[in-house]
Write a structure and sequence with these properties.
420 residues; 3-stranded antiparallel beta sheet; homotetramer; 12 helices; alpha+beta
Chain lengths: 420, 420, 420, 420
């Protein structure tokens, strides 16, 4: 849990804004310009780009449309730092972001300061009437941008970890990095803990209602709405995450060489790329090691297994003769009995068997941010919970994270379910 | 509807078997060995290979395990004609099936006859006790192989149509082809017909129970089981399929150049490949034509639009400010009010918004055929209904067809839904 | 040497034409339509396509421009059967030739007969004046088309062999195939033979002069012209080709795992594709076999090593501390001392170290056939001699064959040289 | 001509060494760590990597084998900074060099200083006897490493220019960059100048003899040896390079849309990538601009056309009904009449029609540096001369530069020849 003290102590949007913005910079502590420039794959972005893009979001979603006195910092940035909003315009090709050595890091820091100043002035002058006009639309957009920056904070960490994984010298976070310890130490599984919790069949409410109008009280993304009824059969959910020791047992039982555990597409992938273990594991002289933000280290067997794809999570579940939970099962458990479960939010995202799709009656947020979530509802699978790299105040039981089933570079793990 | 008189007039498994097997050959009427040899893409197979593979299925799923007197025709065929059953062994690489010019077509006909003879003898000698042993497991496997052959009959037609689409001379089915007219003539939409039918919210039963034991009465695949409750919000379903004329309106409104209608992945695809219209449409001197099994012809505007990807179906629905139905909505409509709808089964498969996944409590059929359906439950979308190329007795309201969302070479169309 | 009795006994162009045309069909003896339809890679073509394309060449280079009474058989064929003549028009994409199941094989035979008839009438009626007009331009074009058909005769065999190599059942030519024995039996190396022949330094004439005007006497391609002086240092050329036994020694000395023998690009290729032996070799239980037109058979150790890429030939030469000859060295040897060398023309093409480029003063043949050779003078290496699959009357000492350095599917071997 | 006063004023190897090493750093003036980190394509390297790799060369080719007191700076660097010397060991994958954000830039500067110190001590203590032992082998290796660093100095500039070309903001060299003006200003063509110079046919000496033993007097690479006779037909060579104005005329005559000017492989490339002009040209509102190290600017019409591929040079020559010179023609002209020609060495490298291959009797330098040149003698074409980005003392008439025929990112231009 990378986090700042936020909601309790902070009683103004300006203060919240400053804390959130500072946090992004804190996460880059001790990194060089080079570290923040390189892009290790198309799915990842340079850290410098994350810092610019989140700034661009405040500028594009708030200042330009809503603050009439605002003058855009640099119109070129609409092309360079737009991620995927076709409604705003064309985008510099994603796989080439690492080639944008200019604007320089210093220039991007200037850009951040320029936008931060404008945001603080604007937020300070916002009247409650303005803020809550149109069913709290402005307040919602502000919270959306806050949450957007927090999402990129987690990506800053996952993209950096991915980049460092290609370096044979196994770089480590600086000893002065504010989250060094949190980011590298998961909680050991507890042997004595109850194994699973049962839930009875029935109709449950899933998701949240009318998110925008309640943004001040409890923000959620449009993809979590509307609340709707969902019928669940009875099921059990494991109280703990699958550990590295558990996953080693799967490997040692031939897990990666037995097709029967794998989805067809997964099997093709692991065969063609000769996969034998999770992305960040290394086998050196018969011993497992893992790439971490502390560099290479012996695999901590009692930690939850991390950086697991949906493919691997599903194969492990099959081997274990259990299954992944649906996102609805996960949500019901997290809402009704959160205290029974370890690591719901602060260890690893948990793959569900649910393809990421629209809830019944889903309507994207109006305007340019309609592209935020809806257009990705295809061939992605939902992860629930949160991770050690997730800002603590960013998450909740209804939160729907989603990635392609082959994705491994996120802090993703496995919690198993069973039908009963 | 390519079909044979089946269930009523045929009172023995042997007769059913013969009719089904003959049908596969009938579909190849008037084709040359070359037509049956070529493979137009990895997703398609040579027609000759379909004829061999379905034969191999009878041999591998029935004769070899269940008929002790059976001698395998040629052990090499386990490698050549196994599609994807890792439980049986390795497979000749799918994209290269078109290179297998040997065994020759004549040899494959011999193979069919050899297996057909063995099957007829074995079926004739099967006692009712044997047939219904182990909860009708043998009867179920027989029906599975029958249905498997029927599935490949539709693929024979879609793969042939795809192959012919690469030929600038626009080949046509032989005038003597038994299904020439059916395969090329869809039903015109009716202007006067009621537009949609409403369904109220509530819990519905979806799917079928205990398929294997009831195979004799009504076969279904394992992926249709078990029956389970599903809560639906109220919705409307259109009574007719979207027509070519409707789809032309979408194109002429700039449908293929407006990102807002498309899923992110779909938009990237149509941009990178400069797609402007459905797969088989051609625009010649400002006029739309379509590639058909009768060759190139003017687009019949009143026909349902066909060979549409999920991407296109979804974009069209967005443009129309409606949506695709879920597979559960489609099934409830098809079971409760089939008479209200045109073209439920005999025009085009209908894309649903449902990602292909396991029903709650799903258990794959035991044995080698466990690979039949389950391992494909990823990144595919469910189509419901049936098409003019589907054997009529092969389909039912609970049938779940599935293809990748980019797939266009199937007889797939669009039926729209709305939340109410 | 696949061949027909040609130049001596045949005193008319018509007779020559008929013999050459028949030979292409003879080479397809015992093959099915399927065998003639499949295309195993982009560099190869379906046999059926070769039969059509060579016909199209007679039609396009002779009948259409020179025979005013000729009516084109089918204008579509200009698109379907044009190989690479942009001067004539666009071409059906080469990698997709295997998808052209129509026109049917019978239709292509009709096409051949139609063109053959027209050619025979036209050739019969050609006056000597017409034939030798414009410095024998017409006679030259006729001979060019004859030679073109002969080049495709060799490709028919190499493409068929390549296709069959993907078939795990190891197909074989029909026992009635007229060249079955010739095509599968190379000459054993002779232990007692002199090892090399020396040549002294000096200026030599290379190539041929004014080919078109002397076509009747001795045809050559434009790329063999003009004759020019070339200075050679003294050198030795081996009298025999490298044998399979020699090449086995290279492999067993770790040839494929030692980078020092390989060109950089070659090393990358064999590393990335894990190459361990020549294309058509198989290692089965510690024994080498080779794919041949007789099916799989034990590697004949005394045969010359065949189906070798330039990469492999060069690596072998480095290992042997010799080198490949330049094309000029080869030509001087072949012209001045042909009797000293085994297998100059009738075993395997011999890689030279010469990049395929224009001779000093080279001018392409005028007209559409200017594209025949010149535009390929890039990144290809010259092979000299001829092979068991080359029509005997097609070849000569100045003949320049050329392929990409990675190409392995031709009947290519190794003859080594040394500087002295 | 980026250069330092070298040979005349510098009377010690140490001084030469220091000047050359400093020059590499000078070329990076005003660049950020990010600019030096990014890698724009596999063929290019990060500038930081160039700085490390050239250092590694001094360490690996001189200090480690020859200076017994030397302690390696960091053994990991043998993997990270080895370019392609398999004789030394495996190499970090070239396309991923941009991911090596560590070692940091500062660390690489430390590495340079460490090696520079060791080199200076070692060079200072070298006796003449040591230096000239084994036929001057040590002196030769020292000069090789000097020349190697100079080659990378040109690559630093071409790789930087390539990287900046992807930046829509058109970055420019710092105003303080020591070579800013030289690098961006070519010489205008002169209208009044003689157009071509003729050379008579005959035997000429090409290349240099026994390079290593004469290294102190005049260094050359092994690929320039041995000197040998070469017969040339009479020819003319243009005195000036083709200008941007000339090349615009080619474009405006439809040069990029007429297949007849292009080699087959070139035509496929420009068709498939829709090429319309040279790599760094941009057409903005009917006006040509070029990307330069000063940013985007109007195309200077009187400058020589630059960043031209062999494909383009060859097509232009065909359009002009001339041809590219062979490398032997170029060398003869440069040696016998250098004063007749503008821009032989200090404008742009000049493509020749010669495929890069071994001279008769070529023997690679012994030892690890045998991989320096020889293994790249495939599918590359020779460029002669030198460019504004080439260190002036690095070049000579016999110098053979070489790149793939599609390469455009070098300072390459066109000088035409004709047969007479």
């Amino acid at each position: 849990m990378i986090d700042i003290e936020l909601s309790q102590s902070v009683n103004s949007l300006v203060s919240q804004f400053k804390l959130i913005r500072q946090q992004s910079l804190n996460l880059c502590s001790g990194l060089s310009e080079a570290d923040m420039q390189a892009q290790s794959m198309s799915d990842a972005s340079p850290l410098k780009w994350h810092l610019a893009h989140t700034t661009w979001a405040f500028e594009s979603f708030l200042l330009k449309p809503l603050d009439k006195s605002y003058k855009q910092y640099n119109a070129d940035y609409d092309y360079l730092f737009n991620s995927y909003y076709n409604g705003i315009g064309k985008q510099y090709p994603r796989p080439m972001r690492g080639l944008l050595t200019r604007p320089s890091f210093d220039e991007i820091i200037n850009y951040r300061q320029y936008v931060d100043n404008a945001m603080c002035v604007w937020l300070d002058n916002l009247t409650t009437d303005q803020l809550t006009a149109n069913k709290n639309q402005i307040e919602y957009l502000i919270q959306l941008c806050f949450n957007h920056e927090q999402q990129h904070q987690e990506l800053i960490l996952t993209d950096l970890k991915h980049l460092f994984s290609f370096n044979p010298q196994s770089p480590s976070l600086s000893t002065k990095h504010p989250f060094k310890d949190q980011l590298t130490t998961l909680s050991n599984n507890e042997a004595a803990m109850e194994q699973s919790v049962s839930f009875s069949a029935g109709l449950y409410f899933i998701g949240q209602n009318e998110a925008p109008s309640q943004a001040g009280i409890g923000f959620c993304f449009d993809n979590e709405t509307p609340a709707h009824q969902y019928y669940l059969e009875s099921f059990k959910l494991d109280t703990q995450l699958v550990s590295n020791a558990d996953y080693v047992a799967f490997i040692e039982d031939g897990g990666y060489s037995k097709s029967e555990f794998w989805l067809s597409e997964a099997w093709q992938l692991i065969q063609s790329e000769n996969r034998q273990m999770p992305l960040y594991w290394r086998k050196i002289q018969h011993q497992f090691y893992e790439h971490s933000l502390l560099g290479l280290r012996k695999l901590p067997l009692a930690h939850p297994v991390s950086h697991i794809s949906y493919f691997e999570a599903n194969a492990y579940a099959n081997w274990k003769q259990k299954r992944l939970p649906t996102e609805q099962e996960w949500e019901v458990a997290a809402i009704t009995q959160p205290e029974q479960f370890r690591g719901l939010y602060n260890q690893l995202w948990q793959w569900t068997s649910s393809s990421y799709s629209a809830y019944p009656g889903f309507k994207p947020t109006q305007g340019v941010v309609s592209e935020y979530n809806g257009k990705f509802m295809l061939n992605q699978y939902v992860l629930r919970g949160g991770s050690i790299a997730t800002p603590q105040h960013h998450i909740r039981a209804t939160y729907r994270n989603f990635f392609a089933p082959s994705a491994q570079w996120q802090y993703s793990g496995i919690r198993l379910a069973e039908s009963i």
